[in-house]
Amino acid sequence: MLVLLPCLGLMGSVGYIWARQAGALSHWRSLGVPPDRGVDIVTGDTDVVYVRTAAGSIYGCRHRGTGAADNCWYKAQEPLSVDPEATFDKRLYQSEVEPPPGTVADRLEVTIWLAEDAFETRYVLLEDGTVWKWEYDVGSYWNLLILIIGPAAGLALAIVVVVVLGAALALRLRTVRSA
Question: Contact 51/40 with Cβ under 8 angstroms?
Answer without folding.
Answer: yes
